[in-house]
Amino acid sequence: MGFFGNLFGSKKLKTTDSDFGEIESFSTRGNDVGWQVNKKYFNSDIEILIAGNKDGIAENQKRILLNALNNETEIKSESEKALKEQYANAEMEFESIEKHFDLKGISVRDEGFEMAFQQKNDPYYFFNVHFENNKQVGVSIDG
User: Residue 50 burial by CB count (10 A; 0-12/13-18/19+): exposed, middle or buried?
Assistant: First the structure.
């Protein structure tokens, strides 16, 4: 890497997590590291973004994520309920997550996590379902 690469570039960190195997950083600020985990969930290959440090994933966030991953049926049901409500509010017919959305990723926070669903058809909006204790607590929509 040349001078500008050293100055502006960011070298990705890698580590091996006991539950997720090899993971790679997507951001580093001092000792704070954002880790990316690739996983199959809801029959989709998704990216999971989770915080930690140079040694690995933050334990609290890891517990939240593992709990969500191990309760896929409950999470899917909660997601479907939230998305169905958004469609009803827009006076649109909702059939199923599989029919209308692709799961793109999960972002884990200290108080819960967020799942990003993208519409399969125009206008391709992102519906972000927010969870705490594996229960949906709200939805935000990005155009």
Answer: buried
Tens digit of pLDDT for each residue in 45-55?
999 999 999 99
Q: pLDDT band for position 143 (50/70/90)? A: confident
Per-residue pLDDT for 32 more than 70?
Answer: yes
140: pLDDT confidence band, cut at 50, 70 and 90?
very high
Amino acid at 80: E
Peptide bond into 123 cis (omega under 30): yes
**C-beta contacts of 16-23 below 8 A and 24+ residues apart:** 17/56, 17/57, 19/62, 19/66, 20/57, 23/56, 23/57
What six digits make up the tokens of 94?
């909702």
Counting DSSP H helices and E strands in the chain, the numbers are 4, 9
Helix (H) or strand (E) holding 35: strand 32-41
